[in-house]
Amino acid sequence: MARVCALLSGGKDSNYALYLSLARGDEVVCILAVKPRRRDSWMFHTAALEAPRLQAEAMGLSHAYREAVVSGVREREVEELKAVLTRLRSETGFDTIVLGGIASRYQLERARMLARHVAAGVYAPIWGVDPEEHLLNLVRNGFKFVISRASTMGLGAEYVGRVFDEDLAREVIALSRRYGFNPAFEGGEAETLVLDAPHYRMGLCVRGRVARLPGGVYELVVEGMRLCSEARVELEQA
What we know:
Layout: E1 3-7, H1 12-23, E2 27-36, H2 51-58, E3 65-70, H3 76-92, E4 96-98, H4 105-117, E5 121-123, H5 131-140, E6 144-150, H6 166-179, E7 190-196, E8 203-213, E9 217-228, E10 232-235
Parallel strand pairs: 1-2, 1-4, 2-3, 4-5, 8-10
Antiparallel strand pairs: 6-7, 6-9, 8-9
């Protein structure tokens, strides 16, 4: 059994990796949400950054929750995280970093570098999975999530804030084949927000609106977020 520090963005992949870590019996001593100051971070999630704190609470792991603010500048943000992880390694005694990466070698290599810096290992349980099967498996395993930001051709405003089921997953897979984007969004085509999962005791209720940003980007602007018994998204009508 490992003592893990899980990097939690609020999205589907970091949540699924943490779920798999718990399923194999790991002890979660640290949940780290990294918050970039810039929206073009290469390494970290930038949408709906309010979510990880509530997700940790939904898991019953509020005591393990930590936050780190970084510049969001490529490479500098990774260097900035070294000091944070060094402190957390001393405070919590974690020996493994949990990573939700699927195909980004950039993220994996830098996570390994950070882990070496603090003499820890890396657990990346969904690295290399088939992205189409991964999207379907999330739904089949009881994960409820939405697209919180879409930034690729084929994913318009109508896909932001919709809770995924198998039909929507297959629709997105079909769009990915047509437009050539990664269906698991590993290339930054979209970001996601998990509302509920098998390891949650409660769900997240989100109130917000869909905004169009420059460059054909659509984003779920969160007006309110709280824990609730039945996860849902309430979108204001334009």
